[in-house]
Amino acid sequence: MSSIKTNFLYKSLLTVSSFLIGFITFPYITRVLGVENIGIVNFVDNLTNYFLLFASMGISILGVREIASVAQDRERRSKVFFNILGLNLFFTVIVLIVYVLSVVYISQLSQYKELLYIGTGKILFTSLLVEWFFSGLEEFRYITIRSLIIKILYVIAVFAFVKSPDDYFLYFVFTIGTIVLNAFINILYVRHFVDFKYMSFSPFHYVKENLTLGIYLLLNSMYSTFNVVFLGLVAGNVQVGYYTTAFKLYSIILAFFSAFTSVMLPRMNALLSQNDKNNFYRLISSSFSIMYSICIPLILFSVIMASDIVYVIAGAGYEEAVIPMKIIMPTVFMVGLSQILAVQIITPLKKDRVLLLASLVGALVGLGLNLYLVPKFQSIGTAITLLCSEMVVTGVYVIYVLRNKIINFSPYLIIKNLLYSVPSVIVCLLSTILINDSLNALLTGFLIGGSLWFAIVYNVPDSFVRSIIRNAHKTE
Question: 278, exposed or middle or buried, with CB in 10 Å at 0-12, 13-18, 19+?
Answer without folding.
Answer: exposed
